[in-house]
Design brief:
- The protein contains 15 helices and no strands.
- The chain has helices at 2-7, 19-52, 59-63, 67-79, 86-95, 101-113, 117-129, 135-148, 152-164, 171-183, 187-198, 209-222, 228-237, 244-256, 260-263.
- The N and C termini lie far apart (51 Å).
- The model is unreliable at 1-6 and 8-12 (pLDDT under 50).
């Protein structure tokens, strides 16, 4: 209604030097930046699509684009239902001298959006055969692609291969797999991953609040409330600071287990 529109916060009807003006200005700037990014990404993706549609592919046009624009073009092509252009762009990307772990992540994410986990896995095997380290970003994207396809078996197999091939990854990679296993109530698999994570020597790879949140979600989903006490003690030993939702999960699980002492902790 007109009355509701007149009451809407605007930078034009707020006195100068007020917190409201600062908030409205910041919100307007953020919105403008988001629109500009969307526009830039769409324009870049349009240029990529045009180059890929040429016969032969206009590689000179692709060479003239920063690789980040090519990364951003991948999900756009999927959104625009231009799946037929993905193979050519991905082949080009993986041959660029400046391809990196973010390239791998962008490729895996695009295949996941296109519901082609099979192509994500085959690309991963190709890169592994080349001895290329897909890094934390690529590793996490690959696990998330398995999660999107709801294929826990594939995710666990990929994780095993990541370990065997000594691919570098971080806590986020662990947490992606923990979240997938725990959400399905597969606590044996979740605990196997978690126990490996606790053995990490790199501090950035050790369990964090997200790790324990995923585990406690798994405890509640699977009904494995007997694990609550040990996980809580491990969390304290690891020096992880729990947030209120995580504490609520611990209290909930402790109550179900009849462990009132822990619930009152």
């Amino acid at each position: 209604s007109s009355s509701s529109r007149s009451r809407r916060l605007s930078v034009f009807n707020i006195p100068d030097d007020t917190p409201q003006l600062a908030a409205a200005s910041a919100a307007a700037a953020a919105e403008a930046a988001a629109v500009q990014r969307f526009s830039n990404h769409a324009v870049g993706a349009s240029l990529v699509a045009k180059a890929l549609s040429q016969q032969p592919v206009d590689r000179a046009a692709l060479d003239g684009l920063e690789i980040v624009f090519l990364h951003l073009a991948l999900p756009r092509l999927v959104q625009w239902k231009m799946h037929h252009l993905l193979p050519a762009l991905i082949e080009y990307l993986l041959a660029r001298p400046d391809m990196n772990q973010h390239t791998c992540g962008a490729v895996f994410n695009a295949y996941a959006l296109a519901n082609r986990l099979d192509l994500a896995l085959s690309t991963w095997n190709e890169l592994a055969g080349r001895g290329f380290d897909i890094g934390p970003f690529g590793s996490s994207a690959l696990i998330k692609a398995c999660a999107r396809a709801r294929d826990i078996g594939a995710a666990l197999q990929v994780f095993d291969q990541l370990l065997r091939r000594r691919v570098s990854f971080n806590a986020y990679t662990y947490n992606c797999l923990l979240q997938l296993c725990a959400s399905a109530g597969r606590m044996d698999d979740a605990l196997a991953v978690y126990n490996l994570q606790r053995l990490e020597t790199e501090p950035a790879n050790l369990p964090d609040a997200y790790s324990y949140t995923a585990l406690m979600r798994g405890v509640l989903v699977s009904g494995s409330v007997e694990l609550t006490q040990q996980l809580f003690e491990n969390m304290l030993e690891d020096g992880v600071a729990a947030d209120p939702p995580l504490y609520c999960n611990f209290i909930n699980a402790a109550g179900r287990a009849g462990n009132l002492g822990l619930a009152r902790y």
